[in-house]
Amino acid sequence: MQLTPVSRNIAWLRVLVLAIAAFIFNTTEFVPVGLLSDIGSSFSMQTAQVGIMLTIYAWVVALMSLPMMLLTRTVERRLLILILFALFVASHALSAFAWSFNTLLISRIGIAFSHAVFWSITASLAIRMAPAGKKTQALSMMATGTALAMVLGLPIGRMIGQLLGWRMTFGVIGAVALLLMLVLLKLLPKLPSEHTGSLKSLPMLFRRPALVSMYLLIVVTVTAHYTAYSYIEPFMQLVASMGENFTTFLLLIFGVAGIIGSVLFSTLGNKFPATFLLAAIGIITGCMLLFYVAAAHTLAVSTLCIFWGMAIMVIGLAVQVRVLALAPDATDVSMSLLSGIYNIGIGAGALLGGQFSIYFNMVNVGYAGGIIGLLALAWCIWIMKRYPQLRINE
Question: Distance of CA 52 to CAs 48, 288, 306, 351, 386, Å?
Fold first, then answer.
């Protein structure tokens, strides 16, 4: 079913609304990275122990993405998004008043349920609502919403936590989400579910080796990234002996670099798709291997985070484009799988980083991530040779 034709400005406005929603959802996913120390102090826990909330959140998303997408696959998309935001807001209210770490975990699980469905449907919706011929730019706008969560959401959330306490950070996110839900109610058109696929789509998708290879690539790459990135805040303070303000600045430039990465992908990604993806994986691997060496030098670690931030954004976009191209007949199922697999990587990385911090000292998280990154790079080189369709236009 086609949407009622609208002007290009209205079409872009609808994509923008989804991008803002992406900003909100990614802010709450990323913001605990900047609050681990404060949450740990509040509940008298070690930072590495608090990191388990990142793993639980990510793995709930991973486990529930496909089942929840299939359960809601016939629900009209505008209504579904509003329901997701209602759950999102209520869960943040519980986060703000959490009286124990277990209560906080329960609230985060509620947020993770809404997240699981949201990221299963939004990429395909953004493409549907984009002006003709602007699919790549629509995905880039969604990625910009993700990057802004790191640019603005994460450091602002961290600053609110420093000034008013981490509970207020979650309270503010919930209040902003409530306002956005009202905007979505007004601006989004009815969006009938289409091309979602079904459980029957799974065997079909898994019989596509190029698609399966991309899923494996993203889980290994994201595991590598989050092994180091999840603990960047305590690492900079405890290992590099940098102040809280510099840590906030570092998170800010990491996010700004993500926006630069999305712009580069939007303008050059179609011209050099394979080169972009291979180079990006190589860059994040190198950055993690150099993380400990550069951490004590402000200019060096800042430069490193710029390249790291650009590269991880390019990786996410490049994989999304390939997954959608390889599964145009089951976009929601394929993107649900991608979201779930991505979050398996987030959870695995946060868990590995935490375990390395506890048993092998936090100084090693960059090396651990870099070694896994080398595996991802080797796999990417092999599948590019094995499956020419992954090189797209090159």
Answer: 7, 21, 27, 7, 37
For residues 79-106, average pLDDT: 93
Identify the CA nearest to 129 among candidates 254, 14, 244. 14
Calculate the alpha carbon distances from 72 to 62, 81, 197, 292 in Å: 16, 11, 12, 45
Q: What pLDDT shows up at residue 4?
A: 58
N-term to C-term CA, the chain: 33
Q: Tell me the one-letter amino acid at 2.
A: Q
pLDDT band at 371 (very low <50, low <70, confident <90, very high): very high
User: Taking the model in full, what pTM does it have?
Assistant: 0.78
